[in-house]
Amino acid sequence: MRKSLRTAGIALLFFAGSLGITLLLAATLFGVPEADLGAVALLLVAVGGGVGLLALLLMRPAVLERIGGVRGQLVGVGLICSLLLVGMVLVGTRAMFLSEHDLSILLTMLLFAALLAVGFSLRGAAPMARRIERVREGTEQLANGELETELPVEGHDEIAGLSADFNRMAMALKEAAAREREMEGTRRDLIAAVSHDLRTPLASARALIEAVADGVAADPETETRYLSSARNELANLGRLVDDLFELAQIDAGGLRLELEEASLHDLISDTLASFRPQAERQSVRLVGEVSEGVDPVLMNPPKLQRVLYNLVSNALRHTPADGTVALRAEPDGEVVRVEVSDTGEGIAPDDLPRVFERSYKGEKSRTRRREDVAPGAGLGLAIARGLVEAHGGQISVESRPGHGSRFRFTLNRA
Fold it and tell me: Tell me: the pLDDT tens digits for 124-150?
């Protein structure tokens, strides 16, 4: 109802404006006497209003849709407009008492003009209809999975804009499909890697516990050693399960950190102290450097501790004896830059873009395996990136084979 009233209001305003312009030009340009303007206005209101109302009724979408496609609708609009003109002229000539001869000549000319208008409407509708048909065919191809579909953008009208929007949509769908395939491949790799890493500690712990239960460990010392090894394997299994749970939270967008003002200096000191025994066993020098003015930092201490743990443990895993692992922090404007560097074998250039992907271990570039370091499932760096981004920071890596690696991330200062 509201839409109908709005349409009627616009039609009345248009009618009134057209009538005013016509009378103004009739008085100034056409030389119609002022005494006749009233009669002319009354004639235009009666004839134009009646025929215009009929034209509006015929040009409604519900009526035009019955004609057919775009060609038929455009030709229908042209024919209705021509009939409107013929109707107004016919009534007007009757009012002016033209002779039958003059009226027949005028009607013949109007009929010819109406037929020409229909022909021109067909000529103008044909290319427009072809362009719309191409869009329809492209949409059908896209719906059938042909993501390479691209439409030509011709002209600068609405159909050209629609074709350009279609091409952008097709490109977005193509990129989304590529990302989905990549994520599916990553998911399969993750499942394969995690399945292997879950099976290994489970098998080891089961074998050790069964050995103790079967009395293979004859003396208390051997039994204690077997149970200690089983406990370590179960601890590795627990860490892997924690990694999977945390990564699932990050991927689902469910990780919401409550940040607080805390001391990064203390957190780095605690991290270095926890890794120092392992570094001594590996004969690796562990260095910590915290510049003045770093504290306080906006962070979630347990989660940031996890980031530092993952980066330092990753550095120790790939640093040979007599090497160095350094943990540094310095202020830089509104942020703090934290760096974990090592003097290990480095990362190959082809592997650098993928080091933060889940389950990606970069076997070709970082192949060093230490017997005194627990193996990982390739989730540590992916978790570190998710936690740093949840803090509002960014993480990056620089590395050259044979020259070690530098992992850097930023945190917001309080």
Answer: 777 777 888 888 888 888 888 888 888
